[in-house]
Amino acid sequence: MSPQVLGEPLGAIAIIILGGLSPFLFAPLATAIWGEPAAKVQRVLNGIAEDISSWLGRFAQGCLLVLAFGMLTTVLLRYIFGESFTRLNEAVMYAHALGFLMAAPVALITNAHVRVDIVYEQVSERTKALLDLIGFCLLLAPVMLLLLIYSGPVVELAWRIGEKSPETDGLPFVFLLKTAMPIFAVTMLMAGVAHAGHAALRWRGLEALDSSSSAHHVGP
Asked: If we measure between CA atoms, which residue out of 220, 208, 207, 201 comes closest to residue 34?
């Protein structure tokens, strides 16, 4: 089946999926307000998000390996043999984009992302939990929702026309690369729900009850 045919219902499918999943974005806030009754749902969401992030982490590792070997091959071909292949260069670009986009959710869940503030490390654990929860509600979730909304038409158009590389000898998968934008937004929302959910549990004093989720292995 061609990308043009698949692209026809893409927007409607995305709207249905987003509508079905959107209530779960309120799970961390519900946990912070109602405590243990909402925490049961939150723990299930945490486990699902951590399992998916683990798979994404392995996928990102594979992309970064392709990036490293692709760059090495590109340099050797260019400076030793005087050859250059557009498809190889674009494959390196694809691996770079996908590797970093798919590694972001697992970095958020495992707290491996870089923090640039100087206040966070100076406050109590309960205040840190509250800051994490507020950060998800006011910053991460709105930004990812906007990315999801505005990238949707771009991706749908790319599938409708079967967008390819502007280079005649390039990869014919630009429509797939652009699909990484909404996937990134969805997986970051998923990771954000888990990250904020753990924060809500800590803030409510349910950290001991959530120890099994906190210890859940995430990553390759």
From this structure: 201
